[in-house]
Design goal:
heterodimer, A: two-stranded antiparallel ribbon, 23% strand, B: mainly alpha, two-stranded antiparallel ribbon
């Protein structure tokens, strides 16, 4: 009889693991040269807090990953944070914004507005279409529910079933990573020349990246997920 | 004061709005081109909606720049994309483009929208957009009955319930026909004091203005995203503008003014009030003023 609760717990854990999703996302970053991109391929994409305080005080991580800071990250990104001595929140945020694109929050009509992930990311990467920019294609782990203190799992801020509160910014398609996106989860970085993108669009062609840097440390999800391939 | 002169007050950068507008317009054209290049029906549908989204944004940005000529062109293109996809939301884009009620109504027939909607609640857009001109009472009654069970369903960028759209449809129809309310039709126990049609219109429009007011107040708090206009909600939100224009047009049929009077009486978020008042005035009073340099 004593084994029943244990079995039950294991079953729940198994179900939770089964619903873990590997979500493709894009992170737009500006003002980088190739050397800086290659450094990111070594370190991963780290949060601003880590960039401000290096080495990162690991003991504080679990305290910083909380609902309050997630809301500040979403809604008060460039406002002074009294919890950080009045410093602008973004300087010490433990979160990393990425986008996966979305259809609007309209639950029923759904398709009035479509926001492509690359466009949202590129808008940030180019400082609103002012400079060239880089798009990092990454894979994040999401579990279909809130797990704010858990560093491993990203928050599906765009997902209405998980975050039902109204946010005028929700349909940016945000998936929020925490502390670091490890290099093994960064597939590649695409360089977008704004001039080339404009030229493509004026010719009626969907713009594409000018060139791509592949991350040698990337581990394709097929190598570690639970999909058993066919024997051939 | 033209909308373009409100930009500074709104904390927005004219050059950024212009850059973003141009990108959306160009991308809209690219997506529209893709519509003709694909054989896949589902892909074509997505390109139609993607093009509509970009033209919609380009139109709304052009309004912010008081460039009505460009706004009209973009909203018309958005309308064509949505309507081609069978989505009557496109009719609201025609309203934003300044098309007449008769034209909007004719487009609903041209695209056979009544029979092509992918979800019933899209009927709310159809009923509302054609409420000033459509006289096919039998069909409208059928469409209303289709929506009867969905009055609490959220629709549109601001997530207002279908019931709010139906209230406005009824108010516009009543105003159009200038007929007594329920007095001559409803059983005695259901009768209510007759409202003036302008009062009914105002009551039905208030939820839309309040939704815009709330959304704008919240959106402006987030200065980081607001400055970049990185949001689907727009300061001159076409969903709300179209609704306000229809209600204002209905009021003017009876030689009354609605939006400006309502904004005077309802304590809205000041920037929201300024934007909506100016946008409706510019649209209806000065059909296509020159762009502000």
């Amino acid at each position: 009889m004593a084994e029943v609760p244990l079995l039950h717990t294991r079953l729940i854990c198994a179900i939770r693991l089964l619903i873990m999703i590997i979500q493709k996302v894009i992170k737009g970053v500006r003002d980088l040269d190739d050397a800086a991109v290659n450094r990111i391929f070594k370190t991963g994409i780290v949060c601003n807090w880590w960039r401000t305080v290096d080495p990162l005080p690991r003991a504080e991580v679990v305290e910083r990953l909380n609902d309050r800071n997630l809301l500040w990250h979403q809604n008060c990104y460039d406002q002074p944070d009294p919890m950080q001595g009045g410093q602008v929140f973004s300087v010490n945020t433990p979160f990393i914004s990425t986008t996966a694109g979305t259809v609007e929050r309209d639950l029923v009509s759904r398709t009035n507005i479509v926001t492509a992930a690359w466009k949202t990311a590129l808008s940030f990467a180019t400082d609103s279409w002012l400079t060239d920019g880089w798009l990092f294609y990454c894979h994040l782990f999401v579990i279909g529910k809130r797990a704010v203190p858990m560093e491993l799992f990203s928050e599906e801020v765009r997902e209405l079933n998980v975050y039902p509160g109204f946010s005028p910014y929700q349909p940016e398609g945000e998936i929020t990573a925490k502390i670091v996106i490890p290099t093994t989860q960064i597939e590649r970085a695409d360089f977008w020349s704004l001039a080339a993108a404009r030229a493509a669009m004026s010719s009626g062609i969907l713009p594409t990246a000018s060139r791509t840097l592949a991350n040698p440390n990337f581990l394709p999800p097929d190598d570690y997920n639970n999909l058993r391939d066919l024997l051939v | 004061m033209p909308l373009a002169e409100l930009l500074e007050q709104l904390g927005l950068d004219k050059e950024l709005v212009e850059r973003d507008r141009n990108i959306s317009r160009d991308l809209g054209r690219v997506y529209r081109q893709q519509i003709y290049n694909t054989e896949d029906e589902q892909q074509r549908f997505l390109y139609q909606i993607a093009a509509g989204t970009e033209f919609r944004k380009s139109g709304a940005h052009s309004l912010l720049l008081s460039d009505w000529k460009a706004a009209n062109e973009s909203f018309r293109q958005a309308a064509e994309c949505y309507c081609s996809a069978g989505n009557p939301y496109g009719l609201l884009m025609y309203v934003c483009a300044g098309e007449s009620p008769l034209y909007v109504n004719s487009m609903s027939r041209e695209y056979s929208l009544a029979g092509r909607m992918s979800t019933r609640v899209q009927g709310a857009f159809l009923l509302l957009a054609t409420s000033l001109a459509d006289q096919n009472e039998e069909q409208r009654s059928h469409q209303r009955s289709e929506l009867a069970g969905a009055t609490h369903s959220a629709v549109g960028v601001l997530g207002l319930p279908v019931g709010a759209y139906l209230d406005l449809v009824k108010a516009i129809e009543t105003s159009r026909m200038d007929r007594p309310d329920f007095a001559s039709e409803a059983p005695f126990f259901e009768r209510r004091p007759r409202d003036k049609s302008i009062t009914r219109l105002g009551r039905a429009l208030v939820p839309f203005l309040l939704a815009h007011s709330n959304a704008m107040a919240r959106a402006m708090e987030n200065r980081y995203h607001w400055r970049r206009l990185a949001m689907p909600f727009h300061p001159v939100e076409p969903d709300v503008l179209a609704v306000a224009l229809l209600a204002e047009q209905a009021a003017r049929l009876n030689r009354e003014r609605l939006v400006e009077d309502l904004i005077e009486r309802v304590p809205l978020f000041p920037d929201s009030a300024a934007v909506m008042r100016t946008a409706v005035q510019e649209r209806l009073d000065e059909s296509s003023p020159e762009p502000v340099a």
